[in-house]
Hints:
Blueprint: H1 2-17, H2 21-24, H3 29-41, H4 43-53, H5 56-76, H6 80-85, H7 94-125, H8 130-136, H9 146-151, H10 160-167, E1 174-180, E2 191-198, E3 202-203, E4 208-214, E5 217-223, E6 230-235, E7 238-244, E8 250-259, E9 265-269, E10 273-276, E11 278-286, E12 289-299, E13 302-304, E14 312-319, H11 329-338, H12 342-350, E15 357-363, E16 368-372, E17 389-390, E18 409-411, E19 417-420, H13 441-452, H14 458-465, H15 471-480, H16 487-494, H17 505-522, H18 530-538, H19 544-554, H20 567-576, H21 586-589, E20 591-592, E21 595-596, H22 603-607, E22 615-616, E23 628-631, E24 636-641, E25 644-648, E26 653-657, H23 675-680, E27 684-687
Parallel strand pairs: 3-21, 8-17
Antiparallel strand pairs: 1-2, 1-19, 2-24, 2-25, 4-5, 5-6, 6-7, 7-15, 8-9, 8-14, 9-10, 11-12, 12-13, 13-14, 15-16, 16-18, 20-22, 23-24, 25-26, 26-27
Amino acid sequence: MHATDRITQIMFARAVSAGRAAELIADKEELRETDRFFRRMGLHRNHPREVGLLRNHIREQVAHYCAGVNDGANAVGQSWPMWATGFESEPWDPVSVLLIGNLLSFGGLAVSQLENERIVVELIQSGASEAALREMFADRLDHVDFDLIRQVASMPRMSDEALEVLADLPRLAGSNAWAVAPSRTASGGAILCSDPHLEINRLPAIWYEAVLRWDDDYVMGATLPGCPLVAVGRTSKLSWGVTYMKGDTIDIFVEDCRQAPTGQWQYRRGEKKWHDFQIRQEEIGRKGGESETLMVLENPQGTLEADPAADGYQFSLNWTGTSPGSGAAIGAWLDVIAAPDVASGMEVAEQCPQPTLCWVFADIEGNIGMQGNGRFPVRRSGATGLAPLAAWDEVNHWDGFLPPEYLPSIYNPECGFVATANEEQPVVDGVRVTSQTLPDYRKRRIVEQLNYADEVTVEEMQALQYDYISLQARDLLPYLLPHVADKNVVHRLENWNLDYTPDSHEAVLFQRLYRNTLLEIFGHAEGLGRRRVLYVATRVGFSSMVIAAVDRILKKEDSLWWKGRNKGDLIRAAAEKLSLEADKPWSDVNNFYFTDRFFGGISGGRLLGFESRPYPMPGNFATIFQGHVLQTAKRSSTFAPSYHFVADMATSEAWSNLPGGPSESRFSAYYKSDVPRWFDGHYKRLSWEENV
């Protein structure tokens, strides 16, 4: 069915992950750029090795899946987008499965960590106050040599167009998952709720919903086309959902490089020892054009981010996902389907090497639990991984991987529920698995509501997935309003219910006051700079890491960020500028349109109806329903619930909706068949029984 309904999606996704998009799809600069990115990392080279390391029963299941994809592909033939681009498909094999998994693990998730580490480097290199940056990222930059980083050539940035290609990957920008024990439910069974968040305005939807039945068992939920995995789902015994832990498994290093008289590039270790880089050649194909050769320099500590232009310092990159055994992740997704209970599911999840996730479970016996997973490097004492270290000092090198006891794990807590929503994980023995500063607004809102809940129902949990209340606004208003002179603004925001519904004018008012305050406090030349503040707060560069850090600073009485200035005066000046903008509802500010992944944004696509009318997006990044709209170089982008799933383990059913449908064909009735439910907050019943 993946091949029948999503043949273009899986074939194009494999081409991108393999670094062959410009060769197989179209010779466009943004595709050549993403090809260079993936080929430089060299992930494609490891997959044959990883297939050989799969356990026999996993390899067998993967082989059966591939046979099914090939049967479907042979029956379907070429889709319209494949015909239009002259795409020649190749047989699906286990390597293809692992390539699709890499889109989720690296292209969609590890890259988001990398982008935030790039932001830290850029802030350091921009000349912002060292002391102020250390305050902003408290306890995370204590080990960092700012002077060294400022001597390194700027990190290469991908173009906005290439970043948009990466943004089209299954990228869990934020997610919610929680489970409620039978002691708190009306049915007497445990309830599992999960809604992964990613870009939702590009159709077809990332997820493909399925109900699979065999013998007397079943599995139902969200599957990823191209992979035999159920990301969110349930069986007759167990249900599960995941959130992105935002764990730090990727590090940037600084290499001291020189070119030897022979022309060979070398890197330094210690004071005077020089070693030759390993050189890898990658041929980047071009559809209808001559291929280009990419020379990649690497060593045991990583891969240079760019070819060195001269002797001196260069950045390199290392990711734990390149180490042997990383392909075993597909085994975890298959084994969890066979797990009989929460304890078994947690054991399976704990061994999953990538990506870093928090798994939430519930079973028919009433057990609930949460288990983190991921392969984290052992860094030197005091190092967090958020900023680069010198690679020539061997004390900075990774020393194996952290044991499982550093992973978050909860089983049947006394409070009667578990919840996770991309919050920071606790520091264990001085070790952070999440190096970013992360907001906890969604997690706290979920916990608040569950603390008051008793005899909860499926309908109440569905309503909680559609909660639009912002704890960010509740937290910050007491620090902002005392300095606002306009009594009308104060009155409106004091009486606002903190709800980001489409018709809320106060949501826009708060967002403008917040934005103006950030510009006044952090946007000055000696700080982050006006353009950078606008970038991280409003465009594709939006960084929840920076937002979480500045929100904490706004609550402080004294800070280096307003040293020599009066905090109250800055907020007052920010509020005075509110009158310069027209009063609008949230729907006028936070809206989006659906577009087709393959034909959206082109004139022919618009004429054929591949782009929709504008839709209002409720919520924002700080609400449980994370309705987050960004403006990229050429189009709007969204982070929002890509799948709503609620399962009461006292029954054999589940309830769901998603912003899309099963078919990738714009002309199919199933292209966006679930979209009305998603907007209205209505759920459909999933059942393993026939004729339901």
